[in-house]
Amino acid sequence: MNAFSNTAAVAAAFPAASDERLLIPPAVEPRKTGTRRLALGRTIPFGALIGPVLLLVIWSIGSIAGLIDPRTLPAPWSVVGTAIDLIAEGKLQHHLMTSTWRAAQGLVFGILIGTILALISGLSRLGEAIIDGPVQIKRAIPTLALIPLLMLWFGIGEGMKVTTIALAVLIPIYIQTHSSLRSIDSRYVELAQTLRMGYGEFIRQVILPGALPGFFLGLRFAVTYAWLSLVVVEQVNATSGIGYMIDLARNYGQTDIIIVGLVVYASLGLASDGIVRFFQERSLSWRRTLAD
Amino acid sequence: MASHLGGLSGAPVVRVESLVRSFGPRTILDGLSLDIEKGEFVALLGRSGSGKSTLLRALADLDDKVSGSGRLETPDKKSVVFQDARLLPWKRVLENVVLGLDLPEAAERGRVALEEVGLSGRENAWPVELSGGEQQRVALARSLVRDPELLLADEPFGALDALTRRRMHDLLRQLCARHQPAVLLVTHDVDEAVTLADRVLVLDNGAIAADIAIDIPTPRDHGDRRFGEIRSQLLRHLGVETKPVLPV
After folding, report:
1. Average confidence (pLDDT) over B112-139
2. Which residues of chain A lie closer than 8 angstroms to B80, CB-CB?
């Protein structure tokens, strides 16, 4: 065997090295106590729930003890009761559907436009010259500051709302996808060249999968921005939607309905982030990172 | 440059004439000429900065941003093995092997190529799950599945440990015997060059300083007397003196 003769040759050439190996003490010494471990230790089961549950307990105790004025913050069970009433009347579902539909439309348009702009700007110098500047300028203007202008342009209907959400969504999608695409290792581009890939195949096999981590990061921001913009557009001018429900409740001092609305927003945000993370983990299963 | 292995006939696969390549004021390749015959295994040695990689990249059509002149003829069917395996991390092993291969039987050929490099059963692994040697074997399979007439290898075993490197030498020799591509292997390892090649070139100052046919029958033994002679000869060309170390 080649491998064997090689080892033998090495051992013969460096007799001192093989002797030294015998001098190394066996690695069976017990670990000294008091050594500081740098890792965090074991994860706490359902640890993420502890903080929220604690808040809920404090809230309940405060309500029972009469420390919290129900006009400031109604008790948890009266909020639940209000939610059940709203569902029974069909109001909550109706508002939720309207809000979700708006956010979904805005997200779809924002993601499509953001991705297409990122690809054009990422893959061509001319595209970057034309697209990147305006997007950076748009990024410097808070989307919500554009609402007055968008109302004049699109009126106060659905078009204005969806446009506002889409404008907020396309920014993180563009920024993250573009940056991820531009940081694809040039060695892979060289490889594609030596494999004589066509341009279309290069995009499909190298560029799109290479930009996917950035796209997903952008998507997680985008989903948050979508709900955020939704809240504002629905409170500015709407006749339905969770934001409208909250705004109406404010007029009548119905704190419990406001809380129900906030809980719905929180659940929507968490659920959508969870969905994105699920797809992110499935699509990026080839990666091995610190998180694994 | 017409005096290599006389037994081979037909037109050379690679033909380089008066090749000049320069980066700004620095001339890297200075009127270099070289022929590689069909099926010939050529190793290219040279100190770092001697232009080995520049020549290989010129042959691989990877130097479109470099200024230069000269004539260069290479076959269409050529593939490159880099120092890093350069597998796309988001493609599974088999997908990496058949990457860019637009054939109906691509998957089948990919499986055969993986079997040849001893990686049957790892078709669906991700590149990160493989060891360095295994990754480089996938890269070899990716090159061979294209049936290249010319295989360009840029220090392909430079990042591997000594034992893995020996095993890769055996594998590469078997694969080349079977597929018969012309090979240009860039390396800084004199023993590797003498072990594998039919002909060893030494590049110095942008031109070929030595062109030595290796007349030792394979498999070659590093301890062989002729091996030692050629090794010293090459080391001299590389500017390394090999005096025996005498006890003081």
Report:
1. 92
2. 194
Facing A286 at nearest CB: one of B61, B89, B167: B89
Give the closest of A3, A195, A286 to B90, CB-based: A286
Residue of A nearest to B83 (CA): A187
Report yes or no: B84 at the A interface, CB cutoff 8 Å.
Answer: yes
Q: Which residues pair with B21 in a beta bridge?
A: B29, B68
Measure Cα distances from B86 to A154, B61, B110, B129, B195 in Å.
Answer: 51, 17, 17, 14, 25
DSSP SS3 for A118: helix
Interface check for B86 against chain A (CB to CB < 8 A): the answer is: yes
Contacts across the A-B interface (CB distance below 8 Å): 60
In chain A the domains, ranked by start, together with CATH numbers, are 75-283 (1.10.3720.10)
What sections of B60-207 are H helices per DSSP?
93-97, 106-116, 132-144, 162-179, 190-196
Q: According to the model, what pLDDT value does residue A212 have?
A: 93
Q: Quote the pLDDT of residue A5.
A: 45
Model pLDDT, residue A237 = 76
pLDDT bin (cut points 50, 70, 90) of residue A46 is confident
Residues in chain B: 248
Q: Among A194, A196, A204, pick the best mutation site for testing chain B contact (most B Cβ within 10 A).
A: A194
Taking every pair of C-alpha atoms in chain A, what is the biggest distance, in angstroms?
92
Q: Is A190 within 8 Å of B100 when comparing Cβ atoms?
A: no
Q: What average pLDDT does range A196-205 have in this prediction?
A: 91
Strand order in the sheet with B78-81: B78-81, B150-154, B182-186, B41-46, B199-204, B207-213
What is the rounded CA–CA span in Å between residue B149 and residue B67? 27
Q: Rounded mean pLDDT of A169-181?
A: 95
Structure confidence by residue, pLDDT tens digits, B203-247: 988 889 889 999 888 778 888 888 988 999 999 988 887 666 566
How many residues can be counted in chain A? 292
Domains defined along chain B, listed by start? 6-77+148-238 (3.40.50.300), 86-147 (no CATH)
* pLDDT at position B221: 82
Residues of B in contact with A201 (CB under 8 A): 100
Q: B82 and A212 in contact by Cβ < 8 A?
A: no
**Using the beta-carbon criterion (under 8 Å), do A192 and B162 form an inter-chain contact?**
no
Task: Spell out the residues 6+ positions from residue B210 whose beta carbon is closer than 8 angstroms to its own.
Answer: B200, B201, B202, B233, B234, B237
- Kindly tell me if the per-residue pLDDT of B1 is higher than 50: no
User: Which member of B89, B91, B163 has the closest CB to residue A6?
Assistant: B163
ipTM of the complex: 0.85
Structure tokens at A267: 């659940």
* Chain A interface mutation, best of B59, B87, B90, B99, highest count of A Cβ atoms under 10 Å: B90
Q: Do A209 and B91 touch (CB under 8 A)?
A: yes
Question: What per-residue string of b and e applies to A55-67 under the rule 16 or more CB within 10 Å gives b?
Answer: eeeebeeebeeee
* A47 confidence band (pLDDT: 50, 70, 90): confident
Q: How many angstroms away from the CA of B162 is the closest CA of chain A?
A: 9
